[in-house]
Amino acid sequence: MEAGCLVSGREDISSLFPEQTPGAKYKELSSQFSSVRQVRGDGNCFYRAVCLAHLESVLHNARVLQRFKEKIIQTGQDLSSAGFDEGSFKHHLNTVVSVVEQCQADEQEDGLLRLFNERATSDSVVQYLRLLTSAHLQNHADFFCNFVESPNLQLYCHQEVEAMAMECDHVDILALSQALDICIHIVSMEGDEQQLAHHVIPEGAEPSLHLLYQTSHYNILYPRPRH
């Protein structure tokens, strides 16, 4: 990845391979995915990757893109009902809406990539997704408090979710996928098994995006076309 770059262009999947002979997991990865977009490992990689990958997947579908924009605008109410002051999130919400509108106007992957490499824009999008995740966790506290190890859900949200550069947990991924109504496929290289682990969140849905999880880090994957 180039210095100063937050998200790379698409690279061949082999760019992830170790220099020594790739093991079974890498071969399996290569058989299922053709390319990867690397995301800077700054603790915000999950949120940055999810938003870019989802927008990229719906870029050429005007109806779905418009529906996503309406969904984002509605999420402002989720933050208000979780007790966030509008002044604390309005700017970030406007940034996300503006990014979606630029996608609607442009429909070019290059333009999308450029937006996500502008730090102010990209970080503002990440911050909004963090606040939305926190709001969703708090608005559905009866469900999520069972999965959060912290004694206080609100404190967990404030320290672990809303703060920039904090790595996300499985519970945060579930909350964000519910809040945005998107399905995320995570391919994990972790563990001692010889096979990749696949997690689809929520289960049973058709994913709009694919992420690779490796050493606490997320990159964006692109599946090989099914013949």
Tell me, briefly, the overall form: globular
Oligomer: single chain
Order of helices and strands: EHEHHHHHHHHEEEE
Shape-level CATH architecture: Up-down Bundle
Helix content: 40-55%
Report the portion of residues in β strands: 15-25%
- Average pLDDT, to the nearest integer? 95
Q: What is the name of the CATH superfamily?
A: Peptidase C65 Otubain, subdomain 2
Total number of distinct structural domains = 1
How far the N terminus sits from the C terminus, by CA atoms, comes to 31 Å
CATH-defined fold name: 3 helical TM bundles of succinate and fumarate reductases
Q: Specify the structural class.
A: alpha+beta
By DSSP, the count of extended strands is: 6
Give the low-confidence spans.
Answer: none
Strand order of the largest sheet: 1-2-6-5-3-4
What is the level 1 CATH name?
Answer: Mainly Alpha
- Rounded to the nearest angstrom, the radius of gyration is 17 Å
Q: How does the major sheet shape up? A: 6 strands, mixed
| Count of DSSP-assigned helices | 9
Concise account of the structure shown:
The chain has 227 residues and is an alpha+beta fold. It has 9 helices and 6 strands, in the order E-H-E-H-H-H-H-H-H-H-H-E-E-E-E.
Word description of this protein:
It contains nine helices and six strands; from the N terminus they run βαβααααααααββββ. With 227 residues, it is α+β, with helices and mostly antiparallel strands. It has one domain (7-223): Peptidase C65 Otubain, subdomain 2 (3 helical TM bundles of succinate and fumarate reductases), CATH 1.20.1300.20. Strands 1-2-6-5-3-4 form a six-stranded mixed β-sheet. Helix 3 packs antiparallel against helix 4 (86-106).
